[in-house]
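Lecture 7 notes: from sequence to structure.
We start with the chain below.
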Amino acid sequence: LIFSFFLVTLATYLNMREYALFSEFSLDDFKIGKVASRDIVANKDIEYVDEKATSEKRNAVRKTIGVIFDKSEELDEKAYRGYETFTQDLLQIKESSQTVDEFVLNIQQRYPSKFDVQTLEKLYRNSVLYNVVMSSLSIYKRILETGLLDVKKEILDGYDTTNATIIYLYEDKTEYKYIDFTSLIFLHLISGYDNLDLESYINSMLIGYPASYNDVLLIITPFISPNVMYNRAETEKKVKEELEKVPNVMLKISKGEKIIERDFVIKEEDYNKLKEYKSTDSLVSVKLLIGYIIYIASCFALSIFLLSKEIIGELVEVKYLLLLLLASILVYIELILL
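Predicted structure tokens for the same chain:
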């Protein structure tokens, strides 16, 4: 009797596994584009995250976040003082040099690797060099104030570049300012962005000036460096904070829903549902299985009571009980396999 009880319970469990249709098939049997050989029906409610939709939603939010940069006022002042010293040396050496060769030699000794011979010869022959130098000082300062940036296109493409945040670093304080990103100057031109590169910016500042003032670019370029730096840590921190506010896109599989339908081509959406369903903790509902076991035990108890001597008035022989029990089991198995 006990063996029969466990046999019926096992048949019930296997039927529930078969109902989920994972006892005989794996995900490899349900590839995208294949025609399904049979139905797969959910035996419970499942809610899961739509990873693709959630990722797309978060990427959209990410592109609304502006980049964060650092700008040190102390370093800007140091750079300007260094450039100012150079311009004073340039004018002094020009004044003291009797020949172009002497000028070239003295500048190259004082500032090695900064200028080639042709550039220095051109500067020596510029009749308004003093005015050019004075203009370069003003433009150099303006570049530092505006901000010179050298950053990879791949970084910018991941963010909102209509605005940006600059963290101004002073000796005793830090200040956050929102700016128009297009106001920043690029060291080199980056396709797809409206920002001026360094050369174009300097040329725009010299509109209306004589051609001799074009030497401003030759003087500034060797002494200018990017002073606006991409702050990866602060930017990613901001991104993380904003993305944490974005809720997951949830999808639901309802009990009784056909995840895969027989004789239909399996689509990506169907496959993803099947994958999520398979990944759930249990393919058989524990509550449902316990319910079946209690029901079967109750049926066995009722059968024993109905076949007892107190009910039918005589003792049933064991062989008839076994025959009746076997017949009941076969009928039950046949029913659950339909």
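Points to note: Residues 18-24 have pLDDT under 50 and may be disordered. DSSP finds 14 helices and ten strands in the chain.
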